[in-house]
Amino acid sequence: MANEIKAAFSLFQKKSLTVFGDSISKGLYLEKGQIRRIGRSAVSVLAEKYGVTADNFSSYGQTLKKCWEKGHFERFIGETERGSVLAIALGGNDCDYRWDEVAKNPLGAQRPNTPLPEFESILRKVIALLRENGRVPVLFSLPPIDSQRYFRNVICARADGERVMEFFRGDVTNIARHQEAYNTAILKAALETDCACIDFRTELLLMPDYLDCLADDGIHPNERGHAEIARIIGNVVDRYAGALSGQGAI
Predict the structure, then answer these.
(1) How confident is the model at residue 210 (pLDDT cuts 50, 70, 90)?
(2) Per the CATH hierarchy, to which homologous superfamily does domain 2-244 belong?
């Protein structure tokens, strides 16, 4: 709870923040192989609710590794003042594979876009770099995914599904478990470095009809999903505001 309150304070004590994320925080999703845009993403809903200007530099396919290697974090430091907040919503593409390559050699050694140890290392370097330069990092959990839908509607459209299933050893739930490991790495890094973090994933997992919040691709939240994410994060912020004013309990 302390980390959630710290994150909420960091995000909304100022009137502007920057977001580094992927297609989810950008409000994009796949439908029948085409990239579509959500009318109101969680970022836009929250920015409007709290009167915050959000510079959203999220992009389709973005990874933490790419942001690090391309110097995006250094650029953020160079273009902002001390105390500026950077919301980091990355990891979903880092844990993904090149499925066409997997299908060619399903029983061979395969590497995700960013292997987990490398992902963890980069994330901690990013936190340290931002803090050393007086910037405030805020981490976000990854939304849950639907392995079956992602396999059927995305992987099988890009590669030979039967061959990829050999890579999964017949168990498609490997997809969700693999992504969960990256989410755990985010929460672990936040805990061990005392970095601000908002975990909206847990509440989504407890929703009995969460799958109705996902687009057909099984990984991107739909309109309802974005509304639920905004609601959960907003509740954290409001809870903090209530505690601060003496109207609620921490």
Answers:
(1) very high
(2) SGNH hydrolase (3.40.50.1110)
